[in-house]
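On to my pick:
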Amino acid sequence: MRVLHIGKFYPPYAGGIERFSAELCAALAARSVDVMMLAHASPGNGRATSFRNDGVEVRLAACHGQLLYAPVSPSFPLLLSRLIGEFAPDLLHLHVPNTSAFWALLTPAARRLPWLVHWHADVPLDVRRPALRAMYSLYRPFEQALLRRADTIIATSAPYRDTSVALAPWRSKTHVVPLGIGESPPDHSSVEKMEIAAKDTSAQSTAWPGTGLRLLAVGRLSYYKGFDVLLRALALTPEASLLLIGRGECEAGLRALARELGIEHRVCFAGHVDDAQLALAYAQAQVFCLPSIERTEAFGVVLLEAMRARLAVIATTIGGSGVGYVVADGASGLLVPPGDAATLASAIRRLGDDAALRARLGEAGQARWRAEFTLDRCADRVLDLYRSLLPENWYPAAAAPAPSPTRARSEERDG
């Protein structure tokens, strides 16, 4: 079985979808699936890149930037068509939202194949960017055409599927497959990437800037993540300090807010960190917090990472999001109303005052991850969907998953 995945970006580009899709491809390769990933190079990288990672052939199209979150990549459709001819996939696995996935609609060779559309999230209609809402009127016909053409669709949680307006006409062919992560954090490093990281002077220490309860938050510094709410809650909990990992368009505003609240000495803005530093942060933290304020937070892969690390977690009760499904309130974590700094501060104080509760929630969270959200569980369910789309003789029914791949990589550059 040969499967071509079409994604938006690929690690080390920061993002939960990117990390998950890379891990899923590796897990499928370990199950004797011949996998190729086509995505974009990081915005501003005008060179196409080819390499092999964890048994997966990766092809990254040149990307000259982004326009309202959409990669600007004129070469992408040509590369898609060429790879279908060279790789000869049996089916396409399309990760969306991603405007470049629409090229499959206009590529004759792609239209002859079965499609699985992996619906990670609805298009975020950011009310703070009216242009995005206006552009969605142009985007929606292509989105619906993609879903209409899909043979099957994956939603990452039942709450998200059931509240998605975009998915509503296609629920009969939509299957819920929760995201999953592996037993240990992936290593997306390479000599070249380490050299780039060494030159990145914006990267900072991953140390907590004070004593007391060690809070950890990880994610893009965007408005919907609610990190401003977390800073306001931190101002009400002087016994805690925060390590905030990630970068984004709200970074300057968050730094200014920390100064305004007089808590800058208790907040470390760590920027992007490598996989080893991220794993260390999870190991050393005492509480993980995901304070997102709206349904743009569709699932929260970082919650799985925290649960794997046996961390007590605090998240928010976002209607129609998978967050409330991932975290079982009072059992494997605490849920608070989005945007409510006072209630969030109370939850932080509660965990800070009760080490036994932190330990109980951390153990229960790890058990829930093992039961529901492992990468193996996710990959097996995706593989079952592949088999349902292809003739039985295209993939041996008795084939057993291969051992997990070693993390060896070879890289080469396409000019």
Q: What stands out?
A: The two ends are 30 Å apart (CA to CA). Residues 190-204, 396-415 have pLDDT under 50 and may be disordered. The longest helix spans residues 130-149.
